[in-house]
Design brief:
single chain; about 950 residues; mainly alpha; 5 domains; 5-stranded mixed β-sheet; 45 helices; 5 strands; globular
Length: about 950
């Protein structure tokens, strides 16, 4: 007959988890986020419908369980979502307490010698200490606390993981298979809801096999397990089934997106860091899972002593490492997670803390009953000290965590995000406007500000404006205020130039605002951004304007007043704001970064309007908000140079190297830090914009360089050349004339005579003086016969006039000068194709592909030549490569469609024509061919 469990064990196993749940719930509700936090913004927007234009991908169980929240009054919905996170976290800690209490403490001979309990559980009066210590270490850790008080979805993910481990612990204790059925269900739900738990699948499977033993391989058991797990995995179908038909995709598309998103998260997760964290948490648990035999190691007295000491040292290292990890050192999940929550590792670490605390409490707090040798006085003192450290840790660790984390938590959950959203929304006019953003965070914050009330504004995700489907959705939601695309197919992709024209028309009848500092975009070729606090109003350039006008005195005063008002209250905080910005209050750091970029941009506007004093104050405020804003540092130092006449303290080359590190582009730099106003940086940006097909934005930068560094002759030449790209020959001539009139530029221009002659010729060409332009280039080439830009410009004149023989001769000259010139090689191939010499065209194109395997023009021209030679298989390879290199172009799809058409492969032809039409310009000749082909494929005429 079994003895009933002792009272201490009853308390630790039965009552303590409920006490933990109640206490944790009270704590988390008391420290709940006052509004939505930035980490919770995306998921909250999905639940409440703020980002109606995007599908729900991931976390299907969360969406299912929070669906009833929509029925609550709008004012209660954010609280309900945050409170749901608190409830999930409280339940997680309850399961943690129960799981730690169920951990076996009979792993080593020393433990078994002190236990008089066949279950292997810790049956001593203080057996509640290990679960409580584990709960406090986990529940007060900053990442756990943050996600327990905000609706990020991480709390539910961790609850499912905790439930799966708890089920294994219960099965190990009672050997009842119903717990393994619940384990399989928890795993299925967890895998479907959380990609990170899928990464732990091998660990969970190994743990299951370990506790089940050889009985695991029973086919009937495996069938039941698969049925319960499969039931949980059915959750993968929830989001695809619930997707709105107006999003334009079917069930299969959404299911592939759901699975693909999870796969990508797993593949692109930093595996090295995960391995390091696994070593600190999973390895101790793996060793804890082994029940070491009494004869393990040397059986001699000395060997036994060393084995026991080794075990104790290992457990001490495990305990110290996991406790230290909760304090967020450099190797903690928070520091290594790159913004990911990584709560599963903290939970595993808490299990290790609980087990190791029980291990030392048993070995040091209870003597071996049948020991052949009693411990020495020194041994007793060490045991007493060890137990004392555990009791001290039960008080000191939570006290330290609270003192360390509570200020950061208050900053994270405080009103800062709501205040920033209010600043964005207040900048919009009361009668309604179009609010445009490249960054969804700004749009969602404005949407959150107006949650529960009718917003007068139309929020536009500029990344989605290329999609006809998005315009149709806007027309439905804002009937009468947004034009319906009519019969235009939803698959039709709107080119950037059409979007720019559309936004320009909208500025004539609406206020159009940009919610963040401008970043390179096609619509800024005909619109300029007038700052208004943290946002900017987009205005159409007047007929004769090329660069934005200088700010008026009133606008400059308004900018200075806004900065002086210190809207983010930096004056109330010590600097730097965060002693460790990667670990403390991520919301506050993100908001400071956003504010820094805005103020830096306002400083640039003031400086370009001639107000150096206000610009200095703005740059200083930007650096104060974000010490790592190197663009603001550069601007501040250059501003000081302008005011004092002394050289700038910053090294532009070094700053550029730091800013443009791995994974960074000028676009990300401008979005994160705001624009530069320093001649070297402006020149680099101008070149970037020129190459990217944004000539007006390049002109703005080159013009600024000529103002800041008048002796920079390269900037004057680049300015004149970019005016040619914009189709402004008179302005190009005026820029050159002004440069030639400056004495300090004569020496530099003298070294660029070929470039000057080329620009003179191109100005003539754009004024329809083609013969004079041609002769000017021929005369220039007599003086500079090896100048590639001159040869290239002459080739272009011949091509535009259809004189392919002349163009071919010039191209041959180019290749004599530069045999590996990509432009000359691709031009020669294209010219020979126009002359119907398809076999000859393959020679330069094959050479270019060998030199540059990823050159899109080479693959396109070679595919065209191969098509005309009826070498369809080879042509198809080039078209597929073209699609791989440039997915947003239509040529590759149309080429594959034509190949399938010729082969009478109806399905493939239709698929590729439809894919090409998504990206093709509506007035392109090949577009009409594709539309006609599709009509014939559909049975039309």
């Amino acid at each position: 007959m079994e003895n009933p469990p002792s009272a201490p064990r009853n308390f630790a196993l039965s009552l303590l988890p409920w006490i933990v749940a109640a206490g944790a719930l009270i704590l988390y509700l008391a420290s709940l986020a006052s509004w939505v936090t930035l980490p919770a913004l995306g998921l909250t927007a999905q639940v409440l419908g703020w980002d109606w234009w995007n599908p729900k991908i991931g976390r299907p169980l969360y969406h299912l369980l929070t669906f009833p929240v929509k029925a609550l009054p709008a004012g209660s919905q954010l609280f309900a979502l945050n409170a749901f996170a608190a409830l999930c976290s409280a339940l997680t800690l309850s399961l943690l307490a129960r799981s730690v209490a169920l951990l076996p403490q009979d792993r080593t001979r020393d433990q078994r010698a002190r236990l008089n309990d066949e279950t292997g559980l810790l049956a001593i009066p203080a057996n509640w200490l290990p679960p409580l210590l584990a709960v406090l270490a986990c529940g007060l850790q900053l990442s756990f606390w943050e996600h327990a008080t905000a609706a990020t979805g991480e709390a539910l993910d961790l609850l499912l993981f905790a439930a799966s481990i708890w089920c294994l612990m219960e099965f190990r204790q009672g050997r009842d298979d119903k717990w393994l059925a619940r384990f399989a269900l928890a795993c299925g739900l967890g895998f479907a809801n959380n990609w990170a738990m899928t990464g732990f699948a091998p660990f969970l499977l190994a743990a299951l096999v370990w506790v089940k033993g050889f009985e695991f391989f029973n086919l009937r058991f495996l069938g039941r397990l698969a049925a319960w797990g499969g039931a949980g995995l059915l959750l993968y179908l929830f989001n695809p089934l619930a997707a709105s038909p107006e999003l334009g995709f079917g069930f299969g598309d959404w299911l592939n997106a759901e699975l693909g998103a999870q796969k990508n998260n797993l593949l692109f997760n930093p595996k090295g860091r995960v391995l390091l964290l696994s070593f600190a948490t999973l390895l101790p648990l793996a060793l804890i899972g082994v029940r070491w035999s009494s004869g393990f190691g040397d059986v001699s007295a000395a060997g036994s002593f060393l084995s026991n000491m080794l075990f104790r040292l290992m457990h001490a290292i495990f305990l110290a490492g996991c406790v230290f990890m909760t304090l967020d050192p450099a190797f903690s999940p928070r520091a290594l997670g790159e913004g990911r929550a990584m709560l599963l590792f903290y939970y595993l670490g808490a299990l290790v803390i609980g087990y190791c605390a029980g291990y030392f409490l048993l070995l040091c707090g209870k003597e071996e009953e049948k020991a052949w040798q009693k411990p020495s006085p020194l041994g007793k003192a060490l045991n007493f000290a060890c137990v004392g450290i555990l009791w001290l840790g039960l008080v000191a660790l939570p006290a330290w965590l609270v003192m360390k984390n509570l200020p950061s938590l208050r900053a994270q959950n405080g009103p800062a995000v709501r205040e920033f959203a209010t600043h964005l929304a207040k900048g919009l006019p009361g009668q309604g406007a179009l609010a445009l953003s490249e960054q969804p965070t700004h749009l969602l914050l404005v949407a959150a500000h107006f949650h529960g009330q009718q917003s007068p504004h139309i929020l536009l995700d500029s990344r989605m404006l290329q999609l006809t489907r998005y315009h149709r959705q806007l027309a439905r939601r804002h009937a009468g205020r947004w034009p319906d695309p009519g019969a235009t197919p939803d698959t039709q992709v709107i080119p950037p130039i059409a979007i720019a024209s559309f936004l320009g028309m909208q500025t004539r009848s609406n206020h159009v605002f940009l919610l963040h500092p401008p970043v390179p975009a096609m619509y800024l070729e005909n619109l300029w951004a007038e700052p208004s606090g943290p946002i900017s109003e987009l205005r159409l350039y007047s007929t004769n304007e090329i660069v934005p006008p200088q700010l008026s005195t009133a606008s400059q005063a308004a900018i200075f007043d806004w900065i002086k008002s210190d809207p983010m209250r930096h004056g109330d905080r010590p600097l730097p704001l965060h002693s460790n910005s990667e670990i403390s209050a991520p919301d506050a750091q993100v908001l400071d970064n956003l504010y820094s970029a805005v103020v830096n941009r306002l400083g640039v506007q003031s400086q370009r309007s001639g107000n150096l004093t206000n610009a200095d104050r703005a740059f200083s405020s930007a650096v104060q908000a974000n010490r790592s804003n190197l663009v603001a540092v550069l601007n501040r130092d250059f501003n000081e140079s302008l005011r004092t006449g002394k050289p700038s303290a910053s090294d532009p080359a070094k700053i550029a190297q730091e800013l443009l590190g791995p994974g960074q582009t000028w676009g990300t730099v401008l979005a994160k830090h705001g624009p530069p106003d320093e001649p070297n940086f402006c020149f680099a940006l101008g070149q970037l914009f020129r190459q990217g097909g944004l000539p007006r934005q390049a002109i703005i930068q080159f013009t600024r360089v000529t103002e800041l560094a008048p002796s920079n002759h390269a900037a004057h030449l680049a300015l004149a050349d970019t005016f040619i790209a914009l189709g402004q020959p008179d302005r190009s001539k005026a820029a050159l004339d002004a440069a030639r009139a400056r004495p300090e530029l004569r020496a530099g221009l003298a070294t660029s005579e070929a470039a000057l002659l080329r620009l003179d010729a191109l100005q003539l060409s754009q004024k329809n003086k083609k013969a004079e332009a041609e002769q000017a280039l021929i005369d220039a080439l007599k003086k500079f016969p090896a100048d590639l830009p001159l040869l290239d410009s002459l080739t272009e004149i011949y091509l535009l006039s259809g004189r392919f023989t002349n163009a071919l001769a010039v191209t041959e000259t180019q290749l004599n000068v530069a045999p590996t010139s990509p432009r000359a090689l691709v031009n020669k191939g294209g010219i020979l194709i126009q002359m119907k010499q398809f076999e000859a065209a393959l020679v330069p194109l094959n050479k270019l592909v060998e030199l540059q395997p990823n050159h899109p023009g080479a693959h396109l021209n070679r595919a065209m030549a191969l098509m005309n030679l009826t070498r369809l298989d080879d042509a198809a390879k080039d078209y597929r490569k073209l699609i791989e290199l440039a997915p947003a172009t239509h040529n590759g799809h149309f080429g594959l469609g034509e190949i399938a058409w010729q082969r009478k492969q109806t399905g493939d032809a239709k698929k590729h024509y439809e894919a090409g039409l998504k990206h093709a310009p509506a007035d392109a000749p090949e577009t009409k061919v594709a539309q006609q082909r599709l009509k014939e494929l559909s049975g039309g005429k």
